[in-house]
Amino acid sequence: MRAVEVTALGGPEVLRLVERPDPEPGPGQVLVRIRAACVNPADIAARVGQIPGGPVPPPFLPGWDIAGEVAAVGEHVSGLTPGDAVAGMIPWFLTRGTPGGYAELVAADADWLVPVPAGLDPVVAATVPLNGLTAHRVLEIMALPGPATMLVTGASGGVGGFTAQLAAQAGHTVIATATHDDEEWVRGLGVHTVLPRSSKLDI
C-alpha cells in the first residue's frame, strides 16, 4: 500500500510517499480502506516532536482522524462488516508509533470507530472524530440538568464549534465568542448570541 511517512522531525518537507506492506487486522480490529484523513493538530505536533511524553522516533505514519470503509474484520469484532462506512480515531502516538491513518489501509481498533450515515462525504466525516467526540464528552461531563445558558469561547475552532452546535441542538442558550471574520459562520451553528473575541467579559 501507499502511505505518507514522517522520515524525520520537522516541517512538511519531512513527509514522504512510501510503499509499506498491507496491514492485517488483529483481534478487536478492523482493516479500514482510507477515503479521507484529517490533518489534525496532534499530527502536526508529533511531526515536529512536540507531544506529551516526548517525540515519537521517526519513521512513523501519522493520521489521527480518518474515514473510510471496512475492508476486513478481525476476531472478536461485532457490529461491523466489510463495506461499512466508518469514521474514527487512530490514537497512534499514544502507542508510540503504531501506524496511523495517512495510508491506503490501516488496522484500527473497532472500539475507536463509529458508523457513518449513508451519503456523508468521507472528507466531512474525517473532520469529526477528535473534535466532535471531545465536544460531546464535555457536554456529557457537564450533565446540565435542563436547558441552561452557556458560554462557548473560541466557537470558530474545532472543539468550540462542535460544542456550540451540540449545545444549541440540545436546547441550551448558547453565547459564543468568535473573531469578526468568523461571527457569521458561528451564528450558522445555531448559537443565540455571538460576541467579538476581544470583548471584555464579566462572567
Question: Could you explain the architecture of this structure?
Answer:
It holds the Pfam family ADH_N. One of its GO terms (molecular function) is quinone reductase (NADPH) activity. The chain is of the alpha+beta class. The protein has two domains: 2-125, Quinone Oxidoreductase, Chain A, domain 1 (Alpha-Beta Complex); 129-196, NAD(P)-binding Rossmann-like Domain (Rossmann fold, 3-Layer(aba) Sandwich), CATH 3.40.50. 21% of the residues lie in helices and 27% in strands. It has five helices and ten strands, in the order E-E-E-H-E-E-E-E-H-H-E-H-E-H-E. The protein has helices at residues 41-47, 122-125, 129-142, 158-169, 183-187; strands at 2-6, 15-19, 29-37, 65-73, 85-89, 105-109, 113-115, 149-152, 173-178, 193-196. The strands form three sheets. The chain has a five-stranded antiparallel sheet. A three-stranded parallel sheet has the order 8-9-10. A two-stranded antiparallel ribbon has the order 1-2. Strand 8 (149-152), helix 4 (158-169) and strand 9 form a beta-alpha-beta unit. Helix 3 (129-142) crosses helix 4 (158-169). The radius of gyration is 19 Å and the shape is globular. The mean pLDDT is 92.
